[in-house]
UniProtKB/TrEMBL annotation:
Allosterically activated by N-acetylglucosamine 6-phosphate (GlcNAc6P). The record marks 144, 151, 153-154 as: Part of the allosteric site. Pathway: Amino-sugar metabolism; N-acetylneuraminate degradation; D-fructose 6-phosphate from N-acetylneuraminate: step 5/5. Keywords: Allosteric enzyme, Carbohydrate metabolism, Hydrolase. Catalyzes the reversible isomerization-deamination of glucosamine 6-phosphate (GlcN6P) to form fructose 6-phosphate (Fru6P) and ammonium ion. GO terms for biological process: carbohydrate metabolic process; glucosamine catabolic process; N-acetylglucosamine catabolic process; N-acetylneuraminate catabolic process. GO terms for cellular component: cytoplasm. The active site is at 65 (proton acceptor), 134 (for ring-opening step), 136 (proton acceptor), 141 (for ring-opening step). One of its GO terms (molecular function) is glucosamine-6-phosphate deaminase activity. SUPFAM superfamilies: NagB/RpiA/CoA transferase-like. Residues 4-222 form the Glucosamine/galactosamine-6-phosphate isomerase domain. InterPro entries: Glc/Gal-6P_isomerase (IPR006148), Glucosamine6P_isomerase (IPR004547), Glucosamine6P_isomerase_CS (IPR018321), NagB/RpiA_transferase-like (IPR037171). This is Glucosamine-6-phosphate deaminase.
Length: 258
């Protein structure tokens, strides 16, 4: 796992956009995440696209997760959110931006179909991830099977409370979701997790330096051969080996890529 520590959220976004730009240039299959953390990276990518520096025309994208029960037209559905925040502002083909179907009658069948669609597309080259304050990635809450496929999950009270800011009230937050599983996420070629702010410091320390455990679903990054964690100083403040990670980056050989 490579841990990159940046001074602030803006420089986290720039570092992440640099990596995604490389993949976009190769026509990669992108794994996209919602949540507030990657929004600044999406803005930076949109700016680069508008300047003519990169194109997503050869890319396709798979979203991490979706609320169950929200129609796709609902402004808080992740289907609508990723379009509003990113894909509608660049040249990716809208028909090739896929997300789990939170309106399906049988969520488990929809989940299995989603995993099949990812496999049929040749797999995800790079998966963008945020992290919940409870250590969840996608919507894989504590206790999630480390090898799970895309399936229904029930949100933790802490996630419902964290996400209530996007809805009129806490009771309006859907309780059930469809999320890529930890097994699904693990099959992506490269995992890139972003975290900013001191409220993420505990989760970042747990995922990077704590035990590999279902209690911290993000700790599956420890098993992945190509994982990059990009954090700001505030989110890095509980890392015991922060100085080592800085030293490693300062001494990174020029032949090593992202
Ligand atoms: C949501 C999303 C996750 C996201 C997490 C953190 O629950 N399903 O993909 O990583 O929240 O969100 P934020 O970046 O807003 O803190």
């Amino acid at each position: 796992m490579e841990i990159l520590i940046r001074t602030n959220a803006a420089s986290v976004a720039t570092a992440a956009a640099d990596i995604i730009s490389d993949y976009a240039g190769r026509g990669a299959t992108l794994g996209l995440a919602t949540g507030s953390t990657p929004v600044a990276m999406y803005k930076e990518l949109i700016t680069r696209y508008q300047r003519g520096e990169l194109s997503f025309s050869q890319c396709q994208a798979f979203l991490l997760d979706e609320y169950i029960g929200l129609p796709r037209g609902h402004e808080q559905s992740y289907f609508a959110t990723i379009r509003r925040e990113f894909t509608h502002h660049v040249d990716i083909d809208d028909a090739r931006v896929y997300s789990p179907d939170g309106t399906a009658e049988n969520p488990d069948e929809a989940g299995a179909a989603y995993d099949e669609a990812i496999a049929a597309a040749g797999g995800i080259d790079i998966q963008v991830l945020g992290v919940g304050t409870d250590g969840h990635i996608g919507f894989n809450e504590p206790g999630s099977s480390l090898s799970s496929g895309t399936r229904m999950k029930t949100l933790h009270a802490s996630t419902i409370s964290d996400n209530a800011r996007f809805f009129d009230s806490t009771s309006a937050v859907p309780v059930h979701v469809l999320t890529q599983g930890l097994g699904t996420i693990s099959r992506a070629g490269h995992l890139m997790l972003l975290a900013t702010g001191s409220n993420k410091a505990e989760a970042v320390a747990a995922l990077a330096e704590g035990p590999l455990s279902a209690i911290c679903p993000a700790s599956i990054l420890q098993l992945h051969p190509h994982a990059t964690v990009i954090v700001d100083e505030a989110a890095a403040e509980q890392l015991r080996h922060a100085d080592y990670y800085r030293f490693t980056e300062a001494n990174k050989p020029s032949w090593q890529g992202h």
